[in-house]
Input
Amino acid sequence: MKIKMEVKPYDLNDFYNEVATKLGCTDTSKANYNCTKLNISSEIQQGFYDYYKSINPNLNEEEITMDVTVLLAIKGPKVDKALKPNEIEVFDGFIFQKKGDE
Output
C-alpha cells in the first residue's frame, strides 16, 4: 500500500511511529516494526540525514553521513527510486507485536 508522508527531517523511530499511526495503530508504544516491509523515496531518506545533522551540530558532515548510513543499513527502510518524493510503500508485516507484548 502506498501512502503519502510529509517530506521533512525525521528521527527514524518517530517516522516509524508516524507511519504506524497513519495505518491506524492506536498505541505505538506496543508496536514493533519490520523495516524490511517498508520502502521510501530518496527525499524521505534525505530527511533522516537532515534530522541527525540538526541534532548533532558539533559533528562534521562526514561523521553524520557515516553514522546515519550505518543506522539506515541496520534499522532503516530501503529506497525505491520509483516512488514519488512524498510517497512510501508499506507491505504486510510492517507492524507486529512481540510475543508477550499483548
Observations:
- The helical segments are 12-22, 42-55, 61-75.
